[in-house]
Structures are given as structure tokens and as C-alpha cells.
């Protein structure tokens, strides 16, 4: 068995996790202070979002120095203590590697601007087209064009993200060598895992051309050379260690590429994040819209990835939440009437699938979208750009705000809710982003639903660790077209695990197939009362249940 099939990974967004010095920003010592809490939860690995030196235009994903710690998060002693103490709690560290682009404040970019030819070739610089238009018509993923003027030269540099995030030229071997040095630097510090940010867009075509759709994704996403680059990255850095866990964030990828990235025989990555299942509430594929999520499509996508990765020997990272997504319980459930049921149902649905589950800070206590009512309560750059674009399209302020309340990345970035005190026990100072009002009832110390949800997560984590069928079993979807229940079976060594999750607030019935009813069923776990399995299985609002069949 691979060394990560029984693991559960916790993501802490350091900026919002715990502040120990009162400056309103979470820090490394804050993470350290909460290691016992994480050990108690049962997680094996802790992924931290970037804490490197950065102007923070994109919350640290604009790195100005890869081998540094931004003073707002702490210093080297703090990090060394965190790695050491985490290990004592049985937890390894996973760091975020942002290797597609650097901040324009990075020394390499500054040297390039100053005229150094070597460093100019570290980035993707192009002249205007003959008709005076930009080098290509591609769009930035943060809105606007993907090219900006390079200093006072006639050239333009590519930035697929923010204008302060200049894309690196991976086709230059010197760039790759420098980036491998970065990864090796952190390996030597004792880091045991890496999450590679937008790693499947590093392989831009050699000749950059206008895109027929005016967006350009196909010119730089999942190009064949990306696999060569990742295999080289593996060989030159973490591969020889044999026990490093890696996950690639894969923008707009396919199952076919997902298999290539994560099949161990190819020596690329341990697993990948894909995001298609989190776009099922995008109207016509557009994020900044409102529509109820498409449940059948959600099931279809999760099923396609489960089946495809099993068949091709790939491995999924399983998740509903991260620092770029609104809270899943606010999105796919009812946090007002069924807070406990919603959170536990969503958790069980993915924790019993084939793959490595990720828990994003606060989901284990049922944290929700904060529902901020004023635009200036949101800090996220993407949110403010979207507001401007929605207004330009003719939406009213109220219409735009309603969409932002559901879709902003800040929904998941509000400070972790430790207790019911003024700033939820996150800081003694003024938090960089406001705390959600519901922290008085939803918090780690509350004796209500938050504790019940966390206890349920602990049970799910224990089950994964103790049951090979969850870690390794085959997967089969039941009744894809069922309008409200997600049902699947895991199977190994003659045992079956039946999982039923009801995604809506009324009653529903699932007809259990005869071949499963012939087996002896024992109740394993559920968020309602203990049940026995029968042909016409009634489910309550947001109920989830699992049976072991022999």
C-alpha cells in the first residue's frame, strides 16, 4: 500500500488560523499552539498556505523570496520549532510551492527589469503583434488581459494571474534548476509534503498564439511537456526520498491527465486536486452567478473521477473546501436548519471514497460563509475585480453583493473560530479579515453542533485508518439518476461498504439492490439514529449512513 492511502490531511490557512502576537494576522506560532488540537482530530499531515516573503497582493501566492519567511508569520526559529513539535504530535508538514510565477518584487524579476538578459529569459517576454495588439489575446484568470508592459521596454510579460504575478519560463533549464533548488531547500528542513500550486499550467506552448475562444486555456493547460517537467521535478527533488507526499493543483484538467499525473508508475505526483465538482453551481460555466447546484452533475463528475482514477491507477485528493472556495456546507446544504446533518453528510460522502481526504480549517466545526453585507468587509482581490465587472454588466449593487456573499474566496478565509470571545479567540488585536458573527455559537469550545461535527470527523478518520476497504477498495456508483441521494459501494476481499448520502432537506427513499440485501449488513456509521438495511430505505433530511456487508 502507498504511504498516503490511509492518511488524512488538514489545511491551515496560516493568516486566519491563530494569531499569537496581536497584530491581527495568524502566524506560525499560532499553528504550533494548536498542534494538540490537530493531533486529537487524528490528522497525519498539515498543509500550510504560503508564508514566504510576499507583497500579499494574492495572499502570499505572489512569492518574493521562496527561501524565506515573511516576518508577519514569524522567523526561522518558529518554523523549526513547528516542524519539530508537529513531528512529536505525529504530524508532518506539507508546504505550498508556487512555481508557475513569482511576484514582480522577486529578485529575478527585478534583475530582468534592470536589463539582465539572463533573468529576462526567466520570464515570458514577447513583442506586440505586427498590428500593435498584445502578444496574444489571452485573458488573465483574475480578469483583464494576461499581458502587461515590461518596464520601459517595448516588450510585454505574461501573467496568467494577477499583474504582479509574472509567469516563469519553464522551458529555460536554468529556471527549472533554480526551482528544484527551492524544493530541495525545504526538503532539507524536514518538510514531508508539497502542494504544487497551478502546476499544470507551467508548460506554455513554445510559439504563443492567439486563442480562438479569446481565453487561451488550451494553449497552456495540461500540455504534453508538463508531464516531462513534473517527472524531472520528481527525479531532481522529492522522488529519491520515497516517502514524500505530493499533490498538484490542476486547473481545468481531465481524468486522462489526472491518471498520468498520479499513477505511481509514471513517477510524477502522489495525487491531484481537480475542481470540476465545485463548478456545479456556476451558471453557464460562470463563477460570479447564482443558481442552485446541479446534483446529478455533481454525482456524475465525482463518479467519473472515481471510476477513471481506479481504472487508470491514479489517485484523487478528496475535498469540498479550501482557501479558494466558499464553504461547502453553505453551498450544498442547509446550515440554518440542519447544521450538524449537512456538515457530517458532506464529510462522510468524501471520506469514504477512494482517495486522500483533505479537511480545511473550520469545516470540522461547521464554520459557514460569513454573509458580510458591505463590500469593504471583503479583502480578496478577485472579489473586488468581480464586483467591478458585475457592475459594468449592469447588475445593481445589491445583486452583485448577493453573488459575492455566496461566491467570494473570503468566505473560507475568515478567522478560525476557537471560542465565543470578541474575535473568536483568533487574535487579541484587530483581525485582518472580520470574524463571522456566528462565532458565538459555532466554535471549537462550544458544546453544541460544533463538538458533535468534530466528533463525527474523528470517527471518519479512525475508520479510514483501520479499514483497508476504505483505503484501497474498489468503487461503484449506484443509481446515478437518483434525484437526491448519492449512493456508492466500496468493495475489497469479499466485503462491501454501502454509503448513502441524502443531499436535500426533505425525506427520500432509496431502493437497495437485491444483491446487497442478500448479504449480512451491519451498521457502521451515520448521522441519524442507528438503522438496519431494508429494501425501501427511508432517509431523513441530509442524512448519511454506511453499512458493512459480508
Report helical residue fraction: 25-40%
Question: Nearest-angstrom radius of gyration?
Answer: 23 Å
Report the CATH topology name of the domain at 474-549. Immunoglobulin-like
| CATH homologous superfamily assignment of the domain at 474-549 | Golgi alpha-mannosidase II
Q: What is the tally of helical segments?
A: 17
Strand content: 15-25%
By CATH reckoning, the class of the domain at 474-549 would read Mainly Beta
Account of the 3D structure:
The structure is a single chain. With 550 residues, this protein is an alpha/beta fold. Among the domains are: 107-167, Alpha-Beta Complex (Oligo-1,6-glucosidase, domain 2), CATH 3.90.400.10; 474-549, Sandwich (Immunoglobulin-like). The chain has helices at 14-17, 28-33, 35-41, 76-88, 107-113, 117-120, 173-188, 224-236, 255-262, 295-312, 328-332, 339-351, 381-392, 397-407, 449-466, 468-472, 514-517, and strands at 9-12, 45-48, 92-97, 101-103, 125-126, 147-149, 156-158, 165-167, 193-196, 245-249, 271-273, 317-318, 356-360, 474-478, 485-492, 495-502, 508-511, 521-526, 536-539, 544-549. The strands form five sheets. The protein has an eight-stranded parallel beta sheet with strand order 11-10-9-3-2-1-13-12. A five-stranded antiparallel beta sheet has the order 14-15-16-20-18. It has a three-stranded antiparallel beta sheet with strand order 5-7-6, with no helix packed on it. The mean pLDDT is 97.
